[in-house]
């Protein structure tokens, strides 16, 4: 069962296809992104342009995404269950039901679709610390990227 509505899944496939063919997202797809995902679409595209998204994997096959938000804060999020610890996700998506995703999750989806997501492999021990929400694991990755 897909996590996103069918129209959103198809839109991301269209973005992937167009970006592979033209190395850009055409205006009609940008309008569709704004229509389907709301105001966070442009913010998510900005995060993608800034190369703020990293897919972190471990030898055991675990995967998380880390997105550096506009404020510089590093968010560890999970696209498979659509969870982000940012305040916008808690308030706008979960409490108010105002959007499908926050800008960080959408940026992770878009960066994958566009093939511009940075990749990083970590040990299973570090991944366990990331999954447990231990701050020092995230700081380790941030300092390793600088």
UniProtKB/TrEMBL annotation:
One of its GO terms (molecular function) is zinc ion binding. Keywords: Metal-binding, Zinc, Zinc-finger. The keyword Zinc applies. InterPro entries: Znf_SWIM. GO terms for cellular component: Shu complex. Signal peptide: none annotated. Transmembrane segments: none annotated. It comes from the Eukaryota. Residues 75-113 form the SWIM-type domain. It holds the Pfam family SWIM. This is SWIM-type domain-containing protein.
